[in-house]
Automatic annotation (TrEMBL):
It comes from Symbiodinium microadriaticum. This is Protein kinase domain-containing protein. Residues 222-351 form the Protein kinase domain. PANTHER family: SERINE/THREONINE-PROTEIN KINASE TNNI3K-RELATED. The chain crosses the membrane at residues 12-30, 36-59, 80-104, 116-133, 145-165. One of its GO terms (molecular function) is protein serine/threonine kinase activity. Pfam families: PK_Tyr_Ser-Thr.
Length: 351
């Protein structure tokens, strides 16, 4: 049986790990005159180096997964040791720990994909306790420590930067989240009012403040519940439709707000799609307020009532590590279902 290779992003992170661990091993640790402390520090660096090297050589398997996790834990022990014999200032320690924890978070996301918060708590708690219980260092160690901190922070920043540009899906997802937060912080007051009026959650059984918006009482047998997701111009609610669980996708826009998307066409197309591998749509409602005399602005809204799907997302399912033949068969089954659905959509759009 052939050994599966790691993805390109995982390889990049392991290569940077080899560089960082060997660099720190060469730098040593100047904050203690005890030989055992220096040996312990270099042993942790060597341990992390070996875990990355073995994980790289073994390829993507369960054993490699456990070895890489052990390497991250050894790296955390290294930060404990550094904190216990710290000889420079508190500010320098905070900078180094911020870099170290950024590496722990990103490295765990890329290499082992799970328990990121536990790795962070393990590193942070131990480092803080060791720092509070640290020994007093000599003045000579303090002078050497300043140069050591500069070199170590540089190495760790190179490591973190390499992980950020590794192209891994989890890092890309995090970057998109940060970009979204940044866009929300810089949004203007006019844009904020527009978004709020578009995406405001309607109270169950009551009319929203926006003109021309249908309510749950407008549709026979439909009862809205909580919001379970949101996008750029709409939200998805859980609901009860004719006594059964359903999902309601609500898209709202004003005037010519939508240029490239036609929600009405999407709703009609959803009703035409009937396939076991596609989400089934039951009905849709379109409300246009431009013809209403009392409406001060043109308001459009589409409600698409769809099948309720509560078994999670494909992204979350795929992020769970699988190393046996059962996982491979599951992947083949999923891809076959996706291919069948795509074939159906191709025939539907060309008919």
């Amino acid at each position: 049986m052939s050994v599966r290779e790691h993805g390109s992003s995982e390889k990049v992170v392991m290569y940077f790990g080899l560089f960082a661990s060997s660099s720190c091993c060469a730098l040593g640790y100047p904050c203690s005159d005890e030989t055992l402390v220096l040996l312990a520090f270099r042993a942790t660096c060597a341990g992390y180096f070996i875990c990355n090297l073995v994980g790289l050589l073994l390829g993507a398997c369960e054993t490699s997964h456990h070895i890489l996790r052990a390497g991250l834990l050894i790296n955390s022990l290294s930060s404990w040791l550094v904190s216990a014999y710290w000889c420079v200032g508190f500010g320098e320690w905070c900078i180094l720990m911020l870099c170290e924890h950024a590496f722990v978070a990103f490295g765990t996301m890329v290499l082992v994909h799970s328990n990121v918060h536990l790795h962070l708590m393990f590193t942070a708690a131990g480092s803080l306790v060791c720092y509070l219980a640290r020994r007093q260092a000599a003045a000579q160690s303090y002078e050497l420590g300043k140069f050591w901190v500069a070199g170590t922070v540089t190495v760790v920043l190179i490591l973190v930067g390499g992980i950020l540009y590794s192209g891994h899906s989890s890092i890309a997802f995090l970057q998109r989240k940060l970009a979204l937060v940044s866009s929300l912080v810089t949004v203007s007051e006019k844009e904020l009012v527009s978004v709020d009026s578009t995406l405001h959650t309607p109270p169950n059984g009551m009319r929203r403040s926006s003109p021309g918006t249908p309510t749950s009482t407008d549709v026979d047998g439909l009862e809205l519940e909580e919001c379970i997701g949101a996008g750029s111009f709409g939200k998805v609610y859980s609901a009860t439709y004719l006594g059964k669980r359903a999902a309601v996708k609500i898209m709202s826009w004003e005037g010519e707000q939508l240029k490239r998307i036609d929600p009405l066409r999407e709703a009609k197309l959803c009703l035409r799609m009937v396939h076991p591998n596609l989400v089934q749509a039951f009905d849709f409602i379109h409300r246009d307020s431009s013809s209403e005399v009392l409406a001060k602005r043109s308001w459009n809204e589409i409600w698409i009532i769809q099948e309720w799907c509560d078994r999670g997302t494909l992204c979350k399912y795929c992020n769970t590590p699988r190393f046996d033949e059962t996982g491979l068969r599951q992947v083949k089954s999923i891809m076959l279902d996706v291919a069948k659905a795509c074939e159906y959509l191709t025939l539907l759009t060309t008919a």
